[in-house]
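[09:14] KT: can someone run the structure on this one? pasting the chain below
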Amino acid sequence: MPRTVTVTVGVDATRESMVAAEWGADEAASRGRPLRLVHVWSPGTDAVTPVVDRGSERHAAERLLHAVAGHVHRHRPEVQVETDQLHGSPVQGLCDVSEDAELLVLGSRRLGSLTGFVGGSLSQAVLARVRRPVVLVRAHGPASGDVVLGVDPERPSDEVAAFAFASADRYGCGVRLVAAEASPEDLLARWAQEYPGVAVTRTGGPGRMARELAEASHGARLVVLGHRRRRVPWGARVGPVVHAVMHDAAAPVAVVPHR
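[09:31] RB: done, structure tokens below
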């Protein structure tokens, strides 16, 4: 029997992870989905709560998940919550659970902070491999601005635009388009027609994509970027704009994979 599609949050014992769980609960409520909290543990990966054997690690994981689930229930009592703990590679574990998810949510820190499995390098590794949208959430207060959509004029993506417009429609806000060159009018017109209640504004200029997105993220509800799935000789990776924005943005960042 197939699993129920969920909003899935990867959690560890960090403040960013707890904020990600709150964000995921809000998103699950807006989408009408259950929330799945997942902790992946393996020896030596969790510098916040070090443990000495598998039994202790399993018990620590249970306590962590119980604490996060309790916090989420107090925050969003109407959301159905399930918990899972996995043993093994955090990157592979999160990629595996993302297959059953509508959305994968991770806590995120600024560049150079790598404590816990939601640190920068592991988030990048997950982003480069998953086939589902991933949202990176920092420990910032909630914002009520627009959804910021970063568009690559050379490869505009319906999947990325659809995610941004659907999010804005659920949140009751507009879409702020950031494009390095001329806007892909056909793409925008199609989704503006699909969501007539979503107002669209535009900004951006040549060579300023990452900086414009970082600036637009202040006060934004969400920043939405595309990640083109491709393999390179040295393995999967994220592009330079995604890499820069995931470290500099002041709002949650949704990375939507596409071809």
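[09:33] KT: thanks! Strands lie at 6-10, 35-41, 81-87, 101-107, 134-137, 147-151, 175-179, 200-203, 222-228, 253-258.
[09:34] RB: yep, looked fine to me
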